[in-house]
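Schema walk-through. Below, the input block comes first and the output block second. Nothing else is stored per chain. Lengths vary across the set, and this one has 128 residues.
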Amino acid sequence: MALNRSLTVLLPVRDAQSTLAATVAEVLEMASDLSPCFELLIIDDGSSDATSEVARELSQSYPQVHTLRHDKPLGEEAAVRSGLAQSRGDVVVVRGGRPPAFERICWISQPARPNFLGRARTHAREGL
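--- output ---
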């Protein structure tokens, strides 16, 4: 099912130099199936290996990939908050290392409903 909205995928990582390229390839393939307009935002949470350099190389190879870096580890929640602040998509998905896996997320086509702050919110749920 394709979205009619732009999509941002947040990928918080730390010390992932050996797996980052494969993960990015997987996410790019899946995101392109979900939306014709998407970005992948890699948030390096203070890695001590070459994750930052690998992420920078990937962003030079793929125009959809952007990077952020924390100078020191702040945790996954802080990485997601940093990514949300920089995301440009109408719909934002977090790709983490634990379930639910990105490929299991499915979108429900419902009109946006206001949340308690009166802002429109897009609804998503995990596929079964």
